[in-house]
Amino acid sequence: MGDRMRQVNSMLREAVSRVLSQVRIVPDGVLLTVTRVRTSSDLRQARVFFTVFPSKYAADVHASLRKSRRAIQNNFADQIQLKYTPRLYFAADAHEQKAQEMEELLDTLQDSSSSY
After folding, report:
1. Do 21 and 60 contact (CB within 8 A), yes or no?
2. pLDDT at 50
3. Distance, CA of 68 to CA of 26 (rounded, Å)
């Protein structure tokens, strides 16, 4: 991936993050983080990867993102300055999810070993 695409992805990640902080999608006590954005080479589509903490709300947040995509897209278009506004697609970030699950497992193991 070239420097230009890295810059575009970074700019889009920041813009989506700003929009999502303005549009109330997640319930109180739930943290939604945009981890990365992958934009197609023609800049017409962008996949937004996200994580949710606590992870038990991930499916609900993903459904809310899909349902609110049009409103998010409209607000997002005002935030960026590209020839085309990429169509946003949301996906849970599996890498971050796995890391979180591993941390929870390690915490559980540590708690159980300290009780001996």
Report:
1. no
2. 94
3. 11
- Can you tell me the distance from the alpha carbon of 67 to that of 61, in angstroms, rounded to the nearest whole number? 10
**Domain annotation for the chain: domains and CATH numbers:** 3-114 (3.30.300.20)
pLDDT by residue for the chain (116 residues), tens only, comes to 789 899 999 999 999 999 999 888 888 889 999 999 999 999 999 999 999 988 889 899 999 999 999 999 989 888 888 888 899 999 999 876 677 777 888 888 887 776 65
Q: Is the CB of residue 77 less than 8 Å from the CB of residue 85?
A: yes
| CB of 92 closer than 8 Å to CB of 52 | yes
Sign of CA dihedral 68, 69, 71, 76: positive
Reduced 3-state DSSP string for 59-81: HHHHHHHHHCHHHHHHHHHHHCC
- Phi, psi dihedrals of residue 109, rounded to the nearest 5°: -65, -40
